[in-house]
Amino acid sequence: MVDFAGRDIISVKDFTKEELTYPFALTREFKKRVQAHEGLDLLKGYVLCSLFYEPSTRTRLSFESAMQRLGGGVLTVAEAKRTTSAAKGESLADAVQVMEKYADVILLRHPEVGAAQVAADAASAPVINGGDGAGEHAPQTFSELFTINEEKGTIDRLEITLMGDLKHARVMRSLAMGLSRFDIKLNLVSPESLRMDPEIVGMFEKGKVVELTNLDDVLPTTDVLYLCRIQKERFASEAEYEALRGTYRVDNSLLSKAKKDITIMHPLPRMDELDPEVDSHPGAAYFRQAADLLYNRMALLALILGKA
After folding, report:
1. Both 27 and 142 in a single domain?
2. Which of 66, 67, 294, 301 could serve as 72's disulfide partner, Cβ 3.0–4.6 Å?
């Protein structure tokens, strides 16, 4: 039996294939109800605290919108390094122990790998990892898997290509971990210096994952192309970033070599790796993907708070 009540969402490693797909049905139900503008009070009386030590648009706003659409309340702490007692030296462990006195679930984004686990160990309220440096973004994977399933009708038996900064992009790291639970072929396209963590590659069966530098080698057989920007904020120097910026660029000319029904995904924000002309491509799913964040996060919150 799958039970999310009171559970932290820190790492994709903590979830089975059944658990990763369990919220799909509830996500679809909330999607229908939101699109019909139905009012919901499932989480009336509950409060989400968004505790963000790094900038965010989609993660913070999608979770806050999800909580509000379910009738709950929201406490927002943006730029926590500057606007909270962290500026005075307060530890993360102390901060979350205070926040849980005011809220029922804590959504955390922090620049340090492992920070979400530190928070979860300190708090008795559920903690959701909204990104810990170049570590993970576990809740994103729940939503990405939902989008892939909605776009393709399945996840198993697909050929999926992840392209870009596979070393630093936490959404890519978490998604690869999640995809290791499925029967897929995975292509990892990146510069040599930005390859995926070998530990994550090792989660796949032999022959199920291929690492390469050239998208052309796998584009004609790819069912889902998921790309991301080069993570400028993770580099030690501007020169190091500039040397890799623009390594890959997807436009309609490139996609003419792809399957007609290819699905193109991107976590956003995009830089120069994805040409805006691709927006008109029928397989461009990234704005649908952004919408799915809301519906899936409604499902996760309802499940974590034991109301679904």
Report:
1. no
2. 67
